[in-house]
Amino acid sequence: MTTTVSKTWTLEFPYRRSTGPIVGDFLRALAERRVMGVRTTEGRVLVPPLEYDPETGEPTTTLVEVGQTGVVVQHAWVAEPQRNHVLDRPFAWVLVRLDGADSSMVHVLDAGAMENVRPGMRVRIRWRASTEGKLTDIECFEPVSEQALEPGTEQALEPGTAQP
What we know:
The chain has 1 helix and 8 strands, in the order αββββββββ. It has one helix at 20-31, and strands spanning 35-39, 45-46, 62-66, 69-78, 91-98, 105-109, 122-127, 138-143. The strands form 2 sheets. It has a 5-stranded antiparallel beta sheet with strand order 6-5-4-7-8, with no helix packed on it. Strands 2-1-3 form a 3-stranded antiparallel beta sheet, covered by helices on one side. A hairpin with a 5-residue loop joins β1 (35-39) and β2 (45-46). The chain is globular, with a radius of gyration of 19 Å.
């Protein structure tokens, strides 16, 4: 006769990781409702910023602010959100290329219905009411029409033209 013994263990990782200067500045900017990217040695702007250029391996050091509007590059519709999803209603996972950036970031788009989502559509950031310096400070993206853009933001920044 064999006896089975069961024991519950708690696995913990009791340490903190430094975000470093690039990611740390990106997170601090989010707390201020700004988005920062990083310029590579070849002039491309990566958002979110990376400490090293994934194509060349060169370190990146120059932070630049990019726009809060952009275009949907790719999307995947979620008709039935799970309890751990950001939104409690149907939404799209999207790759968004923010104005002034050369890369795309993944986030959530609150578009109401699947037929409202398409590659190339203009979107803007919807910020949380209270920001803390986390990626979740961006609650989601939402569709935007050209008429709804703030004065002075009618034209999208070309990739690589973000302001230092």
